[in-house]
Amino acid sequence: MPIEHNYLRTRIRTENIVANYTRLRAQGGQVVSVIKADAYGHGLLETATALAGAGCESFAVGSAAEGAALRDAGCTAEILSLLGPVLPEDELLIIEKNLVPFMHDFDQLARLAVACTRLGRVAKVALKFDTGMARLGFVEADAPKLAEMLCASPCIEVVMVSSHLATADDPGAFEFVAEQGARFARICQALRHGGLTFRASLCNSAGILAHAGAIGFDARRAGIALYGVNPFAGSAREALGHGLLPAMETVTRIVSVHDLPRGASISYGRTYVAERDMRVAIVAAGYADAYSRGLSNKGFMCLAGRRVPILGRVCMQLTAVDVSGLDAVRPGDAIHLLGGEGPGAVTADDLALWWGTIPYEVFCLLGLNPREHV
Ligand SMILES: *Cc1c(COP(=O)(O)O)cnc(C)c1O
User: Fold this and answer.
1) Do 248-346 and 14-240 have the same topology in CATH?
2) Which residues are responsible for catalysis (predicted)?
3) pLDDT of the residue at 367
């Protein structure tokens, strides 16, 4: 359910997502498009449709329900559920909608096998291994027992074996990536030795850009880079992610423009006091629109190609910016919270830095606003 009845519009350029997909595919291997959480706020169905049109044959969503929504919309590609079955009804969705759940423990496998036997169906699964995240997954020592068990279980078909990198986007931690890669290779070898055949998948976006040569394996799961963020922006390895195109921008409207004399304060708590005579614009955006209050006195918007600083606290639906010297500004004018023209454009990395978060969260939150696909 999007945020309703506001003036923000989040615009998505699906052609840029497709261009990023093509760019990532050029690094080799199968690219699984990660479109969990409503495609990181970019729109599940619109994103999947555009990528399927570009030849993508495998998608990764979050919950089984998200996968079922994608299947019901007519998607015929492989749909992986990264969260796997959490509730009993998820098992039914997985079987009926032909989803491929990530499975992280023996009990889960046993429960799915029971459901398959009851319905007389076969379920495809992806095994998830922990090689360094310590979040979810089987461990290396489970591999022989798993292979034996699954070779004897005709209703469960393993199509993928996966693990997730903890530090792929940190140039100072490439050693840990190599360690995870080596452990994952041993796991895959043990499972194949035990008689299983599957696609191996380790890399996320940063892994594809920096490590695919050494540990690309068969399938790579691309998320944030599809949406145009370079995981190495601002680091010495920035060039690894060159050429990615942002796909999301968020625009709203100016409600009022007025003078703020030197010495006057603005907004709740009087946290900003004008140090000179200023002109301010009051903008229709606030924390109710998922525009974080953490941007108070920190963030910038982009107005006609220029960066304009936020003055005082971000309110529920209004925020003040400094437009001194910009005489042509009028109520009703468009102003960018994300994106914009020229060097003043606000990137997801900029917003994340001011906001104290990562671009992933910026997309998920601004993607809650009414969206247009162009
Ligand atoms: C979200 C997710 C990805 C994608 O990661 P990015 O850093 O966005 O490329 C890959 N694998 C798993 C298991 C994930 O949950």
Assistant:
1) no
2) 36 (proton acceptor), 268 (proton acceptor)
3) 98
Tell me the DSSP string of 89-116.
HHHHHHHHTT-EEEE-SHHHHHHHHHHH
pLDDT value at position 335? 98
135 is in an annotated binding site: yes
- Supply the CATH classification number for the domain 248-346: 2.40.37.10
Instruction: Record the pTM.
Output: 0.97
* CATH number at 14-240: 3.20.20.10
| Positions of the chain with pLDDT lower than 50, given as ranges | none
Decide if 41 contacts 368 (C-beta within 8 A).
Answer: yes
Q: Is 268 a catalytic residue?
A: yes
Give the model confidence (pLDDT) of 73-107 as tens digits.
999 999 999 999 999 999 999 999 999 999 999 99
What residues have CB less than 8 Å from 43, skipping those under 6 apart? 12, 367, 371, 373
Cα distance between residue 198 and residue 141, in whole Å: 19
CA 275 to centroid of ligand 1, rounded, Å: 45
Q: Contact 53/33 with Cβ under 8 angstroms?
A: no
Is 192 a known ligand-binding residue? no
- Separation between Cα atoms, residue 132 and residue 54, nearest integer Å: 33
**Residues with a CB atom less than 6 Å from ligand 1:** 34, 36, 82, 164, 204-205, 221-225
Domain ranges of the chain: 14-240, 248-346
**20, 17, 22, 28: which is closest to 219 by C-alpha?**
28
**Per the structure block, which two tokens stand in for 274?**
């004008």
Residue of 21, 36, 128, 227 marked active site: 36
Cα distances (angstroms) measured from residue 224 to each of 36, 72, 211, 231: 11, 25, 16, 8
Beta carbons within 8 Å of 76's beta carbon, 6+ residues apart: none
